[in-house]
Amino acid sequence: AQKVTQAQTEISVVxxxxxxxxCVYETRDTTYYLFxxxxxxxGELVFLIRRNSFDEQNEISGRYSWNFQKSTSSFxxxxxxxxxxxxxxxxxxxxxxxxxxxxxxGSGTRLSIRP
Amino acid sequence: DAMVIQNPRYQVTQFGKPVTLSCSQTLNHNVMxxxxxxxxxxxxxxxxxxxxxxxxxxxxxxNFQSRRPNTSFCFLDIRSPGLGDxxxxxxxxxxxxxxxxxxxxxxxxxxxx
Lengths: 115, 113
Fold this sequence. Notes:
The complex is a heterodimer of chains A (115) and B (113).
Chain A: E1 3-5, E2 10-14, E3 19-21, E4 24-26, E5 32-39, E6 46-52, E7 59-61, E8 64-69, E9 74-79, E10 88-96, E11 104-105, E12 109-114
Parallel strand pairs in A: 2-12
Antiparallel strand pairs in A: 1-4, 3-9, 5-6, 5-10, 7-8, 8-9, 10-11, 10-12
Chain B: E1 4-7, E2 10-13, E3 19-25, E4 31-37, E5 44-50, E6 53-56, E7 64-67, E8 73-78, E9 87-94, E10 103-104, E11 108-112
């Protein structure tokens, strides 16, 4: 099976707290790509990061960081010192090489940051 | 800035009345996609164009058609909208390689009365 599981349907935290969004994937491909997208209430899907299966190096971009672990098939996303503007639905996605253009999305995690 | 543009942002149509949604891009990408996203769900791929080659998903209803007259523009035609077609429609593009990052437009929210 090729799928993405985001077990956390909704998360609510108080502003300035750190929060981690979990993503677990399954694929039979050895070459694949992982993504995170943010969807604010306006509806646009905003690209955040792309990772290929051969690059397990973790990445930090400002308050955002990503932890890619092939051993556990996980690609988790952490927001440090969360802000109200971080409130959105976050989708983790998988693009196995054999699937060509077809992205497999997780079901999304709705993140609410309370002032 | 290079971008993906969708018009209109909000579209209201009547049951059974044909409607066309448009997408344009200034990224000069070869691949263009149309997704349907219903409330609290992930986007669902309807079809995509790789240059002029049209690729339809097996479960996309015949009611949905698409046209890509040139590299920059792509249209989604819904021939006879039903109440179940009310959704957000997202256009996306990616460059030459199918596994490249997909960049999304702001979406068109379709209401069917």
